[in-house]
Amino acid sequence: MERKSFLTFLVSALLFLLLIVGCSNDEPAEGGNVSDGETDTEETSDDNGEGGEESALPPMTEDEITLTYASWANGQLNEFLADRFMEKYPNITVEVVHLEFDGWNDHLTNLASTGDLPDVYWYLGNVDVPIRNGWLGDITEYFENDPESEDILSTLKIQGYFDGERKLAAPMQLLPFTIYLDENLFNQMNVDMPSADWTYSEMLELMQEMTVPEQGIFGYNTFTQLLTMAPIVNNDAFGEFGWDGEKYDLTKDWADAITQHAQFVRSGVHAPFFDTDEAEAAFGDRLQWAASTGRVAMQLDAWWTIDLFATPEFQDRGINWVPYPVPRGDNAESLHKPAFVDFGAISSGTDHPREAYELLKFFGWGKDGWLAKLEAFETLTHEDGNPVFTFPYGLPLINDEEIWDGVAALLPQNEYYSNFLERVREPIPLGGASQPGFQTFLDEVYFGGEYGDVQAAIINGEVNAHDIAQNLTDMANRIREEVMEDLFW
């Protein structure tokens, strides 16, 4: 089997999608479940006539069937979406499988061992696990003949083709990296808030400007990392560690970013780490999170933290965290930005792959599903009457202004949120869930190899990032090749 270039594949896949919409297929999808055995093109939408778009998808069954679904998304949201799907398809019963998040892949393994792997499910972190166990059902024929696939954000549409040919998984949830700035602290220091179109180097300069040692004010604190952001935004990369679709490269932006971060840690631009003597000296409490002190200008974090920052714990302390997109690379040609992206798949053993695909889409990128999510974000309440969602959890996976406007309407009505939403539509998933072999590299080399924890070793001054970057690059590419060979050839 020929191993295809990612970039070549991207171009050809997009052209293929443009050509195939509205065309018929002579062959049914492998393992497809078509009630009447026919696969002729229907002049209906994929929901059997509720829309007007032409679809090359085979029709849905009219038999009474049951599909199972498992994800770690909010349980009430899952049940709400299942109800909406069953309203759309009354002959299909959806059973939500509730699993503990801890040990998620182990729970899937146990279910698979008894033949009970859910028809549709999310996998956690390491994509090698479902590939190696043969859990991933092939959705290529459905996905590439589905007009709704055209609407998926371009950087996410190409995900899930792990062997370069078959569509085996799809993005289900998008949670972009988010840089939170404390607007009150900026005002207090008479420093202008940056433009939403700020650049990576501007962010670094602002971190230093906002550091005032004599007042105990720090430029930034981290959950997400500069070393993840820099290679993606500066190189228009398609993945972590400079992944360009064919290979990794840690020799430039990764090495520069971790070196810069280490210098910032040692010089006090970065806030003291949690549960350290430095944190106790700075804040009077070694267990206080730096972002809750009112003395940190930027918190490098994720979209979901917006819920926490809206609580009285922060507001009562005079902290006003507002969201900014990860800055653009100084010479970037794209708006590629890192994001937490959760992936889902249909079971390779499902008896109803056509219907399972529709369920996967509804809970993931489908517009009807997103309309239901917007309703859930606005209306779901706990038993005590309090809303389940303070903010929309996750952002749209599709280029549909009705959906993006619906999300915007549920957010505070100011420029920070509107600017953020406009600039996070080219998300780049992290490596573990999207790149075979990535987690193996992390486990065996990056956090557990000859340098120990590479990041800690660099921060502690034990090794120089540029001295080891080529070795790390070589090992990352070698491990990927070995894992791909093992999994697919």
From TrEMBL:
One Pfam family of this chain: SBP_bac_1
SUPFAM superfamilies found in the cross-reference section: Periplasmic binding protein-like II (SSF53850)
Keyword Transport: yes
Region of interest called Disordered, as start-end residue ranges on this chain: 29-60
Keyword Translocase: no
Keywords for the protein's UniProt record, in alphabetical order: Sugar transport, Transport
Compositionally biased spans, kind Acidic residues: 37-53
Name the record gives this protein: Multiple sugar transport system substrate-binding protein
